[in-house]
Amino acid sequence: MELPPYRIPTLKSVLIHMWDNARHYLIRIGTVVLVFSVLLYILQQYPKDKARERAFIREKAAITAVSGQAERNSVKILEHEYNLYAVEYSALGRFGKFIEPALKPLGFDWRMSVSLVSGLVAKEIVVSSMGILFNTDYHEKDALGHALSKNYSPLIGLTFMIFVLLYTPCLASITVLIRELKNGFLSVFAIFYQLSFAWLASLLIFKAGSLLGF
């Protein structure tokens, strides 16, 4: 293959290249990622447990009737616990529970399972999915980081990152793969191979880390 001669890039060409990539990323964030994040939020909200919701409202009213710092802290704890229950009861939570057994050997729970499925659309959604599922307050500094460190060990975090790194990139990549291979069997095999390789690599790291006491 004939290659063009190497040249020192000019400032203009570097800026144009930077702008093209930044524009592509911003368009992706503002369309696919945004739409899917909104969809996840809707699935997280419905259906609702009406009986549990009424009990929560009564309990919250009883606590707020008494003023004081302890009562305000109790309300925050109550709201957080109810929100976590509501997410687990929702359609999104039920879907996560359904696919959880397949990823349980890796140390992943239903929240991580849902995030990985959402990452098939675009891997940028994995983080936003975790924020939605943990019902984190985005006004609080590093709220998601605190929630993750509280619920998962560093080993599970490493295993999760390895899986995200290795499994099927995104829908756009899958579309290109199918178009280039032009073979349904090979396309399915390639997707299955990527998922299987990510699962086996993550399992190996998780089991090895567990044996070493991490």
Describe the structure.
The structure is a single chain. The chain has helices spanning about 10-45, 50-65, 70-90, 90-105, 110-120, 125-135, 145-150, 155-165, 170-180, 185-210. By secondary structure, the chain is mainly alpha-helical. It has one domain (about 15-45, about 90-210). α4 (about 90-105) packs across α5 and α9 crosses α10 (about 185-210).
Features of this protein?
214 residues, mainly alpha, 10 helices, 76% helix
Helix and strand topology:
Blueprint lengths: L10 H35 L4 H15 L4 H21 L1 H13 L6 H9 L6 H9 L9 H9 L2 H13 L4 H11 L2 H28 L3
Helix pairs in contact: 1-6, 2-3, 4-5, 5-6, 8-10, 9-10
What's the number of structural domains?
A: 1
Work out the helix count.
Answer: 10
Unreliably modeled segments: none
DSSP strand content: under 5%
Q: Residue share in helices? A: over 70%
Mean pLDDT: 84
Q: Give the CA-CA distance, first to last residue.
A: 49 Å
The outline comes out as globular
Rg estimate, integer Å:
22 Å
Query: What's the helix-strand series?
Result: HHHHHHHHHH
Number of strands: 0
Q: What structural class should be given to the helix and strand makeup?
A: mainly alpha
Strand count, sense and barrel status of the largest sheet are: none
